[in-house]
């Protein structure tokens, strides 16, 4: 099975960011899971939101922009760079739109997380496991797309507006104890309706989304301050350090202390590439591409 994974990670952007890569020599696949960004699609910069899948074949330009200077920003995505004859064959099976909206399927996200964790293992990097995980992820991506239709119409627009309202409330209050009831009340919904709607539109539970915001703040403070890990955990809304440690390792693939020690991956003009620091496992070609 000829398929090679050059890079796979979860990227959090909590400050304005933009990048313009030379046409990548790999397939580049990116799934927006949190917040918003803009990406080059057929020669135009278009907004991408949670559930938007970007796919670029080798040689197609890739430009990304997150937020604007002076504005609050949040954007989270999974991305991967890969190539190989199996990948070429998979790509030809269907017409591949550069931008496609797919459900944020729990199983799909789990596979992406596991692939990232496996690639970043320092002492147990297993290329056979990585290859099979990558193939499974790509095939699952196709299956999710085929199995689920997209909702349209006024009901969908109204639902999105309510979810945006709930997300904004969570963004503003995530660093303190937060109850689902108050989020639902803010949107004028019953708890059961708020829980169901938020999960349906974003792929996250309300508490899970709050956890993403807390982790985003924690990662920024670990990276850019000298505060102790314990104080960062408490200031970002985690009740105990042990719980923070568990959540962080499950999401990022390493402990907070390991994350703080690793070098920051930088891009063009010495800009930080989001908050990605788990660069072990990234191929040399992918590393230099990400820096270009």
Automatic annotation (TrEMBL):
The lineage of its organism: Bacteria, Bacillati, Bacillota, Bacilli, Bacillales. Pfam families: AraC_binding, HTH_18. This is Helix-turn-helix transcriptional regulator. Residues 164-262 form the HTH araC/xylS-type domain. InterPro entries: AraC-bd, Homeodomain-like_sf, HTH-like, HTH_AraC, HTH_AraC-typ_CS, Tscrpt_reg_AraC-type_HTH. The keyword Transcription regulation applies. Keywords: DNA-binding, Transcription, Transcription regulation. It comes from the Bacteria. It comes from Paenibacillus gallinarum.
């Amino acid at each position: 099975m000829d398929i090679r994974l050059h890079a796979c990670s979860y990227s959090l952007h909590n400050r304005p960011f933009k990048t313009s890569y030379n046409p990548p020599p790999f397939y580049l696949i990116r799934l927006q899971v949190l917040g918003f960004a803009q990406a080059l699609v057929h020669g135009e910069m278009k907004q991408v939101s949670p559930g938007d899948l970007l796919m670029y074949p080798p040689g197609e330009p890739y430009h990304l922009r997150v937020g604007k200077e002076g504005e609050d920003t949040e954007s989270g995505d999974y991305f991967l760079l890969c190539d190989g004859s199996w990948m070429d064959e998979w790509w030809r099976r269907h017409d591949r739109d550069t931008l496609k909206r797919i459900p944020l399927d729990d199983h799909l996200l789990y596979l992406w997380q596991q692939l990232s964790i496996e690639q970043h293992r320092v002492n147990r990097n297993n290329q056979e496991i990585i290859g099979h995980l990558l193939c499974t992820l790509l095939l699952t991506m196709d299956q999710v797309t085929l199995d689920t239709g997209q909702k349209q119409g006024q009901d969908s627009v109204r639902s999105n507006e309510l979810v945006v309202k709930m997300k904004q409330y969570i963004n503003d209050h995530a660093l303190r104890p937060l109850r689902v009831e108050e989020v639902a009340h803010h949107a004028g919904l019953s708890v059961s309706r708020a829980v169901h709607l938020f999960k349906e539109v974003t792929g996250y539970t309300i508490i899970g989304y709050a956890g993403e915001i807390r982790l985003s703040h924690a990662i920024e403070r670990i990276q850019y301050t000298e505060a102790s890990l314990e104080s960062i955990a408490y200031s970002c809304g985690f009740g105990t350090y042990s719980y923070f440690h568990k959540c962080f390792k499950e999401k990022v693939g390493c402990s907070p202390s390991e994350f703080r020690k690793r070098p920051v991956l930088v891009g063009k003009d010495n800009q930080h590439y989001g908050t990605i620091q788990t660069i072990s496992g990234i191929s040399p070609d992918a590393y230099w591409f990400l820096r270009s």
